[in-house]
Amino acid sequence: MELSGNSLRQEIKYKIFIKDIGILYSWIYSHSNFSRSFEDRSVNSLYYDTSNYDFAASNMSGESKRIKVRARWYTKLEEEFLRGFMSPSKDFNFEVKRKHNSLSDKLLIGAVKTNSVDNYIQRLDLLYSGLKDFQSERPVLNGLDLIDTVFINYQREYYEDILSPNLRLTIDKNINYAKSKPFNKLILLSKDYIIVELKFNPSDRGEVEKLMRNFPFRQVRSSKFLAALSQIKQVSY
User: Fold this and answer.
1) pTM listed for this prediction
2) What are the φ/ψ torsions at residue 91 (nearest 5 degrees)?
3) Position 220 confidence tier, pLDDT thresholds 50, 70, 90
4) Residue 127, C-beta contacts closer than 8 angstroms, at least 6 positions apart
5) Which residues contact 178 (CB under 8 A, 6 or more apart)?
6) By the 8 A CB rule, do 202 and 10 touch?
7) Percent helix, percent strand, percent coil in the chain, to nearest 5
8) Which pLDDT value is given to residue 155?
9) Structural contact between residues 134 and 110, judged by C-beta atoms closer than 8 angstroms
């Protein structure tokens, strides 16, 4: 698995407890060059895996080369999740996130555009059919029998460094999950913490290390996908 130079990046994650969120914002606005770069929005994903949850297993075991497959779409903060998912006019972008040790990239493998009213199962089937079509064109997915597993939804804030625009920081709040079948309602993954991600090109690693020397939180290994699967009793994480 060779990662793409065009979208190659490193990600550093931090789990920050709500009680310390004031410290985070103080650092952003007083000790960094980050500024808001995009309007807050809800990020929504439907994750796919094999029936044996091989993608999740490779992530938990820390394999050097691993992937995640998801359909992703965006909604306004005030839009109810299921209403957004069932919208008669919605773009669902299929992504393969590939990781090789500390480096990663993201392949956009296709999009499903809806233009009609359907029911929940029909919508899942439509996305599955689209994914099957895209699989045949991607060696990394060809031959895999994938199933939909879990929805993940969260509110994201976007920042970028005004001196180095390729250096980006996101804050993910109100992280929710729901099993795809049967779907009942979104459940809050945790009310106690948020996830901060720092994303940058590996060539900027030295600059990032200088910037983060005074960051008041410790780096962690965190996966919303695994945390959600653990909650629906599919994996132990």
Assistant:
1) 0.94
2) -105, 125
3) very high
4) 46, 71, 92, 112, 148
5) 81, 150, 151, 153, 184, 185, 186, 187
6) yes
7) 25, 40, 30
8) 97
9) yes
